[in-house]
Every structure is written in C-alpha cells, then in structure tokens.
Design brief:
mainly alpha, 81% helix, 2 domains
Length: 135
C-alpha cells in the first residue's frame, strides 16, 4: 500500500512543472555535475556565509582550531568526516532549494533553522579533540 502511494507521488513529481533537478537526480552524479551552475554555487555560498557562518562567531573559531588540532594529532577524524558530510548536505540542500523555489534568497531563516543541528556537533567534536589531545 505504501509502495503504490510512493510510486504515485514520484510520478506526479516527475511530471509536474518543477525544474529539472528531480530528473537530474534520477540520472546520477555525472549528469548533475554537467548541469552545475557555478554562479548559483557562488550565490548559495555567499548566502550561507552571510546568514549562517557569520552568526556562529566564536564557535567558528573554536571549530577551526579544533580541526587544525585534530589534524595535527590525528584525532577525531571519523567524527570530522560525519561533520563535513552534514555540512555538505546543508550546502547541497540549499543549492537544490535555490533551484526549486525562486524566492529562496528572501527567507534566510530557513537556512538558519537547517543549520541548528550543527552547533551541538561542533561543540561535541571540539570536546572529542580536546579530550583525546589531553590523554
């Protein structure tokens, strides 16, 4: 029952008037990279920097210090990989949202809400690196 409902939903999405990103996602990463718009990537990067990274203030400095310390001591790399994956997903999600929704840049609160889960990750990662450095 769920399978059939999902298939109906998929067919409606693909046939709808949404941009071609959904169709691109079905073809794989190589097709997506061919259709990548560097101007949009720059716009999304600036948007995320202005609305998210600037609001983190000292947390950004703390995490950068922890990443450098983690690389020097070779500690916490697995968790750093998870953290970077989440940041990449945040960027990719914002990029896709910028394609699908034309007024995406007018609602910076959505990006802030999407990134709220990263602050506890940053603090935990910093704690992991500092703890492993002291031992």
């Amino acid at each position: 029952m769920v399978y059939q409902s999902w298939k109906n939903f998929e067919s409606r999405i693909i046939e709808s008037s949404l941009p071609s990103f959904i169709g691109i996602a079905g073809f794989g990463l190589s097709t997506f990279l061919k259709n990548l718009d560097l101007v949009r990537v720059e716009t999304v990067s600036v948007f995320l920097f202005r609305n998210i990274i600037k609001s983190w203030d000292l947390t950004t400095l703390l995490v950068v210090t922890a990443v450098i310390l983690g690389f020097l001591t070779k500690r916490g790399r697995g968790f750093l990989l998870i953290l970077m994956g989440n940041i990449a997903l945040l960027f990719l999600g914002t990029y896709v949202f910028s394609i699908i929704y034309p007024g995406w840049i007018n609602i910076p609160d959505s990006a802030v809400r999407m990134s709220m889960f990263l602050l506890p990750f940053f603090i935990f990662y910093t704690g992991v690196v500092i703890q492993k450095t002291r031992n």
